[in-house]
Amino acid sequence: MLTNDNGSESLNLVGEEFAVVKILDLDLTVRATNALLNNGIENLKDIILMTENEIANMRGAGRKVKEEIKLALLERGLSFSLISQSEIRKRGRLFSTELALIEAKKNFNKEN
To answer: Which of 7, 15, 31, 48 has the most CB atoms lying inside 10 A of its own CB?
Structure first.
């Protein structure tokens, strides 16, 4: 457990198990890999914190790249975030990665 700013405990959902899976380990096409890396996406955690629209709107990524990444997530029992990074920033730090990772872990647990 972690303690947040107001002293209460919150579940540690940093998602380090997703951070260790590098983009190059996902067996994506060169186009998809380059689109992710050129946009600063380095690991699986970075992907699951993004929405489908954010992926589709990345420079160098189109419909095919988005679908390929989506399939790679589905194969691992994961999905894109349902909440955009701009919305996360509006709602604050505590809400940020924890909510997106909760959703990813829910989807992962459904598959296992």
So the answer is: 48
* Structural domains in the chain, sorted by start: 2-111 (1.10.150.20)
Predicted model pTM: 0.64
Q: Among all chains, which residue has been given the structure tokens 């990345």?
A: 58
Retrieve residue 89's tokens. 């920033």
Both tokens assigned to 74: 């589905």
